[in-house]
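Progress report, Aim 2. The chain analyzed during this reporting quarter is listed below.
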Amino acid sequence: MIYDQSEFDLRCEWGAQGVFQLACISDVVIIVDVLSLSNCVEIATNNGAIIFPYAYKDESVIDYAKSLQAELAIHRQCWTTIGYSLSPKSLEKIPNGTRLVLPSANGSFLTLHTGNTPTLTGCLRNCQAVAEFAQKYGDKIAVIPAGERWKDDGSLRPAFEDLIGAGAILSYLRGSLSPEAEAAVAAFQAFQQDLVGYLKKCSSGKELIEKGFELDVELAAAFNISDCVPLLTDNAYVNSSYRVN
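Predicted structure tokens for the chain:
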């Protein structure tokens, strides 16, 4: 097909259509949602937590969390300094073994649509570890920058931070790059020297800072500091070194 980048080993495409086009023809999918899900999941699973992604604004999530005997993160519009949420800072001290349902409009939504293709989530913090782990599955790798959604109509807004995160992961992968993947790598390399500065100046970063979450942006900008690889296992992201009981 024209849009599936199938002639290349390393593919990169945005959002839900990216998952639809690439997941079924790839050996592994990597979801990249830098200022939200991916960063949260890396921090939480690195502490030994078990993270269940779920659809955003779906009222059935309460019953779902109860069925799993899991805690439920609060919605994004309700972010506070108390309780677990899509604020990575809220998850820094999450205890080992905590079961948490984490709804999100982008990263969680995409995770739920990768089908039977092995699925990882990655960010700037664990880009090299995720890339190296992904190549254990094979040469055909799809990297999906999640992007954001415009508030007025819910359409995809390609997000600077997710392009940079995708490029960071792709820069550690071996294989032929599609033009889209090459563009992501080039973007990452162009801004690599001041990740925190650029993340604070991009639209998503400014939005978080305005809401009082500047530390979350700083946590997201930390580069290649983690060897934690969140792997989707039995509908939950876990550190690939652990198994869900």
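The radius of gyration is 16 Å. The domain at 10-238 is CATH 3.90.1560.10 (putative 2-phosphosulfolactate phosphatase). These observations will guide the mutagenesis work planned for the next reporting period.
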